[in-house]
Amino acid sequence: MTLDNDEIADRLPDDWGREGDEIVRTYEFDDYLTGVDFATECAEIANEEFHHPELIIGFRTVEVRLTSHEAGGITDDDIRLAKQFDDEY
């Protein structure tokens, strides 16, 4: 079940934003390989949770986009995974 706008606003972790039906955060790193390592950790967590984000690796950034396609929007799974990624950062 998707979350309504108020639930998303109340539960969205710090440093995360919302773009339509996605929650988004850009993490910053001192160098490229540290960002790649972080993206790998995120991918492993996501695979264990069977909930796969879009990861965009830049020179010293990793942008993470989460949504629940099967539900048609943002769900508890997206919020939970965002918090797990923050714990890795």
From TrEMBL:
Keywords: Lyase. Its EC number is 4.2.1.96. It comes from the Archaea. It holds the Pfam family Pterin_4a. Transmembrane segments: none annotated. One of its GO terms (biological process) is tetrahydrobiopterin biosynthetic process. SUPFAM superfamilies: PCD-like. It catalyses: (4aS,6R)-4a-hydroxy-L-erythro-5,6,7,8-tetrahydrobiopterin = (6R)-L-erythro-6,7-dihydrobiopterin + H2O. One of its GO terms (molecular function) is 4-alpha-hydroxytetrahydrobiopterin dehydratase activity. Belongs to the pterin-4-alpha-carbinolamine dehydratase family. NCBIfam families: PRK00823.1-2. PANTHER family: PTERIN-4-ALPHA-CARBINOLAMINE DEHYDRATASE. This is 4a-hydroxytetrahydrobiopterin dehydratase. It comes from Halohasta litchfieldiae.
